[in-house]
Give the backbone structure.
Amino acid sequence: MGYLKVSIISKIKLEKIEADLLTKFGILKTKMTVKQSYSGMPGVYFCTFTCYHWLNLFEITSFYNEIYKWFQLLTTKNISINGFVIMPNHLHTLMHCPESNSNINKLIGNGKRFMAYKIIEILKAQNKYSILKLLENGVSLYEKKKGKLHQVFQPSFDCKKIDSIDFGFQKLDYIHNNPVKGKWNLANDCLNYQHSSARFYELGTLDEFSFLSNLSDFL
């Protein structure tokens, strides 16, 4: 009975930590819909994945350069990055997958897994114990049995295949304007937001993001 009481108290404390963090970052609990498998389907994809409970983990850990390294790695596997925006708690990207490497589910899954390890490493170095406890509490019993320690991202990701140039540039406009719309207001103009491909398309600036390829070349 004493053990049960301690367990209940610990659970209440974890729930309070979670509630405080979600309130601090103005976050609502949401669950991304699990999408279909895109294995073996070459083409351009619009992909989005999100940090667990929409916590601003990319911002907290200053993770932007690590995502750029991932983009650079993908280009060595013949994946073309056609656009992106890195928000404080989620990433939008347009990427072209050739027939030789068209398992988008595997590509994104591997990327999320390696990013998760690095994010946890940085959070530990920053002594962000309350966030680490929240991420630990987010692991399902099934995943815990498999050895998983932290839930860094929402379990699934969003993916849409781009079937026309109009649809592709519609998505490109959406991601470029993401930082200046809604609750974010991260810049007064999309060109002034550092972590996106807006300047590449509007100004022809390639030097800062050498991994980028023009979407028009793939549609």
